[in-house]
């Protein structure tokens, strides 16, 4: 049976080849019949006819790509966040408050701080959903 490397996952921690459990991660492979199987790294390199070094390099390459893709996504999300109508509005209002010398206490009394917070939060929620990013993402 020939196997093709697909990637690494933490979701499955049991080797389907030898049955070892509590593995830190498994290697996902696709066989000739297009079935996905999950092997521990030792069984995976045997199945792939690779060396451990080859597997490590492939995993590293994959991780680098994932990180780069994530950075790109975050960059796009931040641009859209900063151009969101709510954020533009808040920034304009802050600038105006500064021009009018409204100090923090006055801003709070007028409910501006709360309003700005809500507008920003709403914008953030929209962007996170649009980009399918986790709630704890910092924009
Ligand atoms: Zn195994």
What does this structure look like?
The chain is α+β, with helices and mostly antiparallel strands. The chain has two domains: 3-50; 68-130. The chain has five helices and three strands; from the N terminus they run βββααααα. The chain has helices spanning 41-48, 52-82, 85-99, 104-109, 112-130; strands spanning 3-9, 26-31, 36-39. A three-stranded antiparallel β-sheet has the order 1-2-3. Helix 2 (52-82) packs across helix 5 and helix 3 (85-99) runs antiparallel to helix 5. The radius of gyration is 25 Å and the shape is rod-shaped. 12% of the residues are buried. The mean pLDDT is 96. Bound molecules: zinc ion. The site of zinc ion has 8 residues, from helix 1.
Query: Over the alpha carbons, how many angstroms does the gyration radius reach?
Result: 25 Å
* Secondary structural class: alpha+beta
Which spans of ≥5 residues are poorly predicted at pLDDT below 50? none
Q: DSSP strand (E) fraction?
A: 5-15%
User: What is the end-to-end distance?
Assistant: 47 Å
Q: Any chance you could write out the topology, listing elements then pairs?
A:
Elements: E1 3-9, E2 26-31, E3 36-39, H1 41-48, H2 52-82, H3 85-99, H4 104-109, H5 112-130
Antiparallel strand pairs: 1-2, 2-3
The structure holds zinc ion (ZN).
Write out key terms for the chains shown.
139 residues; alpha+beta; three-stranded antiparallel sheet; 5 helices; rod-shaped; binds zinc ion
Task: Write a compact overview of the structure shown.
The chain has 139 residues and is of the alpha+beta class. The protein contains 5 helices and 3 strands. It has helices at residues 41-48, 52-82, 85-99, 104-109, 112-130, and strands at 3-9, 26-31, 36-39.
């Amino acid at each position: 049976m020939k196997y093709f490397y697909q990637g690494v996952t933490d979701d499955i921690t049991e080797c389907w080849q030898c049955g070892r459990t509590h593995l830190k991660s498994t290697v996902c492979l696709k066989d000739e019949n297009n079935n996905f199987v999950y092997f521990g790294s030792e069984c995976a390199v045997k199945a792939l006819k690779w060396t451990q070094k080859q597997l490590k390099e492939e995993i590293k390459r994959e991780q680098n790509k994932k990180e780069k893709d994530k950075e790109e996504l975050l960059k796009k999300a931040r641009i859209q966040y900063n151009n969101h109508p709510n954020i533009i509005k808040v920034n304009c209002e802050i600038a105006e408050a500064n021009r009018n010398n409204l100090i923090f206490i006055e801003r709070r009394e007028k409910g501006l701080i709360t309003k700005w917070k809500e507008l920003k939060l709403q914008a953030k929620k929209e962007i996170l959903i649009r980009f399918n990013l986790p709630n704890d993402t910092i924009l």
